[in-house]
Structures are given as C-alpha cells and as structure tokens.
Amino acid sequence: MTIPAIHLLPLGICLGAAAVWDLAKRKIPNSLAAAVATLGLGVQWCDHGSLAVLSGMASGILSIAVLYRPWLAGGIGGGDVKLAAAVAIWIGLGRWLPFALGTALAGGVVAAACYALSGRAARREMNGNLIGAALVQELPTISRGGAVAGGARVSVPYGVAVAVGGALALLAPWGS
Prior knowledge:
It contains 7 helices and 2 strands. The chain is an all-alpha fold. Helix 3 (50-72) packs antiparallel against helix 4. It is elongated. The chain starts with a helix and ends in a 5-residue tail after the last helix.
C-alpha cells in the first residue's frame, strides 16, 4: 500500500519536528503525536478507505501493546510510545514489522551514540544493568533523573528512532 508523496509531506514535517524536539528537550508534545495520528487516519481514509483506517488503528494498538512493558520499566518515554503508535497508523499492519525492526535498529544506533556520550560512571552503571537484565531476563527499572554520581548519563531520544523507522517502513521498497 503506497501513499502519495504529497500526502507524506505533513508526516515528514511532524516527524522532523518530533525528532528535533526530542533531541532538545527529551520530550515529544502530545499535540504533535495527536497531529500525526489524526493526519494518518485522514490519509488512510482518503487514499485507501475504511479497511486501511482499521489496519492503521490495529497497528497503533499493537505498537502500544509492544511498548507497554518497556515504558513501565522506564526504558522508553510516554511521548515515544504515543509517537510510535501515531506513526503506526500511517504504516498499517502490512508494514508494521519493517517499522518495528527499522525503529529498533535506529534505536540501537541512537542508544550507542548516547552511551558513548555518557560519562564513565554512567557507562559502568549501564553495563551493570545490561548484564543484570541478561542474567535475570527482566528489564531493569531506570531512574528518570538522567544523572549518575561521577558522570552524566545521556538519555536516548527515541523519537529520532521512531521517525527513522517510520520513514524506512513507508519509503523502502519491501512489500506491504
């Protein structure tokens, strides 16, 4: 299912704004996620009809369900979850898996950059969290303070990853 380029323009503007906002403030405004969702429903309806709207809504709900536990554990922010669900409306179920994989891959790259920019003590704490998570197979609870004694922890602006994942899913040549 393709969406005409002119209809993707508002999404591109919103995703660019979300990425910049997330980089600067580590927050994504609810109004921006709501605009992405509303525009997505409208584009789905205009371009592909009511079944596409239902597919988009199901894709958004699936995104929330998948991201619920990481959000509870503090591993991802609420704005990131809302943005991912809103972008998923544009994606639909047919391209949800490429969206999820593209977002996860981009998230890994962004997280690696944030890890490298964090102080030594913060990196040591992150290493301990990763080892602990692997051993007990449970996500650690992350402090929301963003700083660790002896070195600042750079939080991950996951809205950037969601924007990249959405662009990959909508523009890449793989099937729908």
